[in-house]
Each structure stands twice: as structure tokens, then as C-alpha cells.
Amino acid sequence: MSLERKDEHDHKGWMESRELTPVESVYLTVLIWLDRRLRVVDYLEILEDLYYKVNMQMPKSHTEQYNLDNKFWYWYPLYALGSFSTVAYIVAAISGALLGFYYAPAAAAADGSPTVAYDSVMLIMGQLNLGYFLRSVHRWAAQIMVAAVFLHMLRVYFTGAYKEPRELNWLIGIVLISLTLVFGYTGYLLPWSQLSFWAGQIGVEMSLSIPLIGEWVAQLMFGGFTLSQATLQRMYILHVFFLPFITTAIIAVHIGIVWMQGIAEPH
Question: What residue stretches are annotated with the Cytochrome b/b6 N-terminal region profile domain (predicted)?
Fold first, then answer.
């Protein structure tokens, strides 16, 4: 008598009765193996049930209520701005990661020569194979992302998509456009050129103009009241370590809410 647990659903027999491709066979075999140990299918069914319950509670869109599928075709490109900004963010992230292999966040060399950060950017632009192209892709992706996010927010506002029950996602969108602008500002300072230096100086002055906490903000964000190595180091840490993880997590939440609630058509 075998002590092996009987397969109540006879998965093996079911698979043998079907004409499955090798890819499908491997996928189902792995899924069955995981399900026997981790109950993966049960959790997937719970998520599916939760998804449909949430969607049942959402009001119908205007397109569904009034059969306007073919009436607002000219709006459809505007509804791709969110996805467009996400693609631009991914392109900027990948190109930025590649640039990070050659960029050095140092304000000045020990021998007093011109800034190491600026020299590393010049090396990327002038000597690295496809370096000019790579930096241009990163810069244009960042600029396109800022424009797409701004236009996306305008579309959401003028179509009334920020109203109940989507007000939470509107607030998350405001946080995301703020993070996008901080992304752009911190990246703008990293080449440590004349433009970067004076943009940083403007940031210091703006921080100092904040009532009561201005000096504290300048010390925290810029490492003092004048630009230095501490300023460049802070901008680099924000741009490369803090902002990408925070922004990616919030984008995932933002897209998840859109997936659950659906897209709001024009009011």
C-alpha cells in the first residue's frame, strides 16, 4: 500500500488528456508544484474575488452608462499620458543607471583641479562610446516625463477624474508630480557646471527664505548656506537612492488604484 498522498484533482491525468505545448506543460507543472506546498491558487482566487468585489462597488463610467464608446474618440490619446509618463520614467531610470557607472559625485579633486563631477560628465559626452547618446536619452526622457505628468494632471482635472471616488489617487498624483520636479532639480545639479552651481545657489536662497525653519532646511538639503561637496553628495543620494525607490513604490500604488477603479471618462 502506497503512503503517497493521492492527487484529489488528478492534475497529471488532466494534463495528459490535453494537447499542451512544452511551455504550457512547464508552467502548469511549476504552478501545481507550488500550489501543493504554498496554496498559491487559493491566494490567487482570493485576490480575484477581492478585485471583482471592489469593482462591483464602483459606479459605472459615463461611457458605460450612456454608450459613448464612439463619441469621445478624440479624448483617447490624452488617456495615454499616464502610461507615457511611466514609460519615460523607466527609460530615464535605465539610462541613469548606466550613466552611474561612469559618473563621479565629487565637487573637486584633491589637487585643486576642476570638479571631478564635471570632468566625468565630459568624459561621458566626449570619450565614452555612445555616451553622448546615452546622456541625451536620459535628459530627454526626464524632460518628457515632466511634460507628460503635467499634461496628465491637467487632463485629470479638466475631465473631472479627480472627483469621488478617485480623490485619493488625485492626491497621490500631486505627490508624484512633486517628486518628479524634485527628481529634475537634483539631477540638474549633478553635472556641477555653471548652470548647476547657480541653480543650486537659487535653491539655497529659496530655502533660507522659508520662515522659521529656513536655515534648518538649507542645512539639511544643501549641507550649509553655500554650495560645497556636501551639497553635491546630498543631491546625488537623493537622486540615485531615495527618490527612485519612493517614486517607484508610489507609482505602483497609483497604477494599482487605477486598475481597481477603472479609468474615468470625461464628465
Answer: 30-267
Residues 35 and 83 in one domain: no
Does residue 258 contact residue 252 with C-beta atoms inside 8 Å?
Answer: no
CB 123 within 8 A of CB 133: no
Domain containing 46 equals: 11-58
Please report whether residue 198 resides in a domain.
yes
pLDDT-derived band at 112 (thresholds 50, 70, 90) equals very low
Q: 15 and 138 share a domain?
A: no
CA–CA distance, 119 with 123 (Å, rounded to integer): 6
Q: What is the DSSP letter of 193?
A: S
> Do 88 and 180 belong together in one domain?
yes
Give the count of domains, the chain.
Answer: 2
Q: What is the pLDDT of residues 61-97, one digit of tens each?
A: 555 566 655 555 566 778 889 999 999 999 999 999 9
DSSP assignment, residue 19?
Answer: -
Contact, 128 vs 249, CB < 8 A? Answer: no
Task: Answer yes or no: do 18 and 118 share one domain.
Answer: no
In the chain the first and final C-alpha atoms are separated, in Å, by 69
pLDDT of residue 252: 95
* Residue 121 Cα distances to 42, 53, 96, 162, 218, angstroms: 52, 52, 12, 41, 26
If asked whether residues 126 and 224 sit together in one domain, one would say: yes
- This prediction's pTM: 0.74
